[in-house]
Amino acid sequence: MRRVFADSSVIIAGAASRKGASRAVLMMAEIGLFQLVISEQVVTECQNNLSKKLPAALPVFTALLTQMNLEIQLDPPLSASNPWHTIIEAKDAPILAAAILAQVDRLLSLNTKDFTSEVATASGLTIQTPAQFIQEIREIVTLGLL
């Protein structure tokens, strides 16, 4: 089964809105199209940001944690995160390291400022926005129907 890592931006957007690509990613993971992987840091960031900025979405996030078959990875050790500080902001290095250590097929993020094509090349990960990921799924389905 494909494994897809999502950062907190995707989880927060999916919890805060009933529509949009982030919510679609969560729904596809819920029905088992792929294994959604997050790290402990992602859980903490989601809880903190939703509590402060979007408290109405906190129950949706809590339900996601209990209803979805999420794989929650331990946060990587500093020794795994530190080498990435040269290509990505220090706050995002643990997310990148967690995705690499989890051996996922791709990393999804709405943070295109930091998770760039250069980061993708250096890390060997496919990095996409949820919309790009959904478009890729559409293309696969369309080809399968021809």
Structure, explained:
The chain has 146 residues and is an alpha/beta fold. It has one domain (3-145): 3-Layer(aba) Sandwich (Rossmann fold). The protein contains eight helices and five strands. A five-stranded parallel β-sheet has the order 3-2-1-4-5. Strand 4 (106-108), helix 7 and strand 5 (126-128) form a beta-alpha-beta unit. Helix 1 packs across helix 3, helix 1 packs across helix 4 and helix 2 (21-30) crosses helix 8 (130-145). It is globular, with a radius of gyration of 15 Å. The model has no long low-confidence stretch (mean pLDDT 95).
Following the backbone from N to C, one meets helices and strands in this order, namely EHHEHHEHHEHEH
Termini separation (Å)?
23 Å
Strands, total number:
5
Proportion of residues in helical segments: 40-55%
Strand order of the largest sheet: 3-2-1-4-5
| Principal-axis shape | globular
CATH class: Alpha Beta
Looking at this protein, list some descriptive labels.
146 residues, alpha/beta, Rossmann fold, 8 helices, 5 strands, globular
Record the SSE blueprint.
Blueprint: E1 3-6, H1 8-16, H2 21-30, E2 35-39, H3 40-53, H4 58-67, E3 71-73, H5 78-81, H6 93-101, E4 106-108, H7 117-123, E5 126-128, H8 130-145
Parallel strand pairs: 1-2, 1-4, 2-3, 4-5
